[in-house]
Amino acid sequence: MKVKYWANRHSITVKKDQESKWRKIEADEDGKYGVVFTEEGEHTWIFKAVSPAGTESKYVESVIRIDRTLPTGSLKIGTESWDSLQSRSSKTIKRGSDPSMRITSDDEPSGIRSVEYAVSTQRITEISKMGEEELTWKTYRSAVKVPLNKKGVTIVYARITDMAGNTTYLSSDDYKYEESKTIISKIKDMPTGSVATGDNTPIVLFVILLLAAAAVLVTLSVKRQKRGKK
């Protein structure tokens, strides 16, 4: 037999030998022979069967791959970044439009099988409860816009799974949609006064701009066009 996949579980233990040599495997109560591999990484083992009369079978080579290490990664939205499942939101981030999201991932020794993301209004703080919530997971391939909830908060989750089935969850802080306000709401007509001392002298106009936050006094300078001779 040849094992061509990675595993994160095992059922029996064989201690690593400093030298390659044959080890006898005893049958269990059901007459089955088994070996448990506990050391992480990729290992090649050769098996053979020997009858009571000493007759040996052909050798069978098996490649055993064990990976119990969780994959790592980061969830990035704008300038913010998270590398774990958050127990709470450290802050509420307000945005007037859907922000762009990126997910990075890495794993040793088996490699990454899948990277997924989900958007929700509910905060999940425990890995054991991730399956209890109705999250819609989508495959992540490249940067994507996060659809912000217009009435409540938005939390983004990432799920990174390696070839052995080990899974890491990430989550963002709370995002809240806040409608962008128009900076200039009104311009009043016209100047309250003007002064001119010659054809090429700038006319100073005082225009009051009413801004969304406060009223600001702005000075504009213009030049009078020189009249031609009649």
Automatic annotation (TrEMBL):
Query: Residues annotated as region Disordered?
Result: 88-108
Q: Does the keyword Transmembrane helix apply?
A: yes
Q: Which domain of life is it from?
A: Bacteria
Residues spanning the membrane: 203-222
The protein's UniProt keywords, in alphabetical order, are:
Membrane, Transmembrane, Transmembrane helix
What is the protein name given in its UniProt record? Uncharacterized protein
The organism encoding this protein is Blautia producta
Instruction: Print the organism lineage.
Output: Bacteria, Bacillati, Bacillota, Clostridia, Lachnospirales
